[in-house]
Amino acid sequence: MIKSGSIVTRYLGRELGFSMLAVSLVLLVIIMGGRLIKYLAQAAAGSIDPGVLASVMAYRLPAFLELILPLGFFLGILLGYGRLYVESEMTVLNACGISQSQVLRSTFIYASILAVCIAALSLWVSPWGLTKTAMLLQQQSSASAVERLTPGRFQKSSDGRRVTYVEANGDAKWQMKGIFMAVADQNGQRQQILVADEGRQQADDNNEGRYWILNEGSRYTLTPGQADVVRSHFAEYGAKIAESEAAREIDQAETLSTARLLRLEQPARDLAHLQWRLSLPVMIFVVTLLALPLAQVNPRQGRFAKLIPAILVYLAYLFLLSWARTQVVKGHISPYIGLWWVHLLFLAVGVALMWGPDWWRQQRYRQGLAAGKGVAS
What ranges in 255-339 are assigned the alpha helix state H? Predict the structure, then answer.
């Protein structure tokens, strides 16, 4: 019995593995292809060096995988086990004494292995990769901001709030001479004009951002439509270089290490992101419970009969998790309730789909027996 059980487990794993790998590979190509096209457009605009695109995509790969693998596993169960139902192989297994609960236990073995891999990705590898990506994109953004400056021309920054004029380049690559800079605030109600003899570009201590450092100059603060101008002199003045669109698209909270999130410097935000990272491996077990009953199809229906409803259930699950995380960060949901109610909700749905029909048939059978005894008496 043990030997036959292990044979069935390996057979189910092989069927599940082939389907999961095929689906995950297709999803990975689609998602990475779309992201690569976006980065190529930014490289063509000059905000990213094309030579770093391979590194950026490699660093972002763990973040893609942690989202793709649960969906790939879910669809792998639907397609792989759906084929077994269509070709009546699952019926033969049931006739040989392999119950639905045994199939579930065998599937949970592979779900546990995958959950450990996803936990490693979401808790450690992915934040590290996103940190490297953010640093690389920020360096590219900052470097290109200086390299695109042409002496003798007024040039606008990528966010449209800064206009810079450089009279000449300095002796070193990051030095400038004769600098004029006009900076508008976000609502456009105030403007600052900076004039300096010389300046340079400098990174902060953590190399997470870069700044214009202007020496021996004046700052003029004015409001459009008013004659009042406030003038001040400075020996040294620092202005942060605006991030590019590629650098801004990465949430800084996603780059925080799991150890730092555990310190709970900002309880609501940190708990929300920590629970999101824990939710991804938990999701594997819940979608396994959801997918097994949804994979049961009639041979006449075909293996894709329940595919669209199943995908809608998965999307609802993922959407509610993302929505709950946002609400916890905003303070609308208690961080101690967090995302767990979503898992419990879909766990209840999975239990109802898995054992609900059998329970209902047993109840109907017992009612029939009771009714038959009543008639006989």
Answer: 258-262, 267-294, 307-330
Q: For 134-184, what is each residue's pLDDT tens digit?
A: 888 777 665 555 555 668 888 776 666 778 888 887 766 667 888 888 888
Rounded Cα gap, residues 287 and 73, in angstroms: 8
Overall pTM > 0.85: no
Rounded Cα distance, 128 and 131, in Å: 5
Q: Are residues 158 and 248 in contact, defined by beta-carbon separation less than 8 angstroms?
A: no
pLDDT, tens only, 180-223: 888 887 666 778 888 888 888 776 655 555 677 888 888 888 87
Q: What is the SS3 assignment for 71?
A: helix
Q: Kindly compute the dihedral angle of the four CA atoms of residues 49, 29, 12, 347, in this order, to the nearest 10 degrees.
A: 80
In the chain, the DSSP E strands lie at: 154-156, 162-169, 175-184, 191-203, 210-222, 229-240
Alpha-carbon gap, residue 58 to 38, rounded angstroms: 15
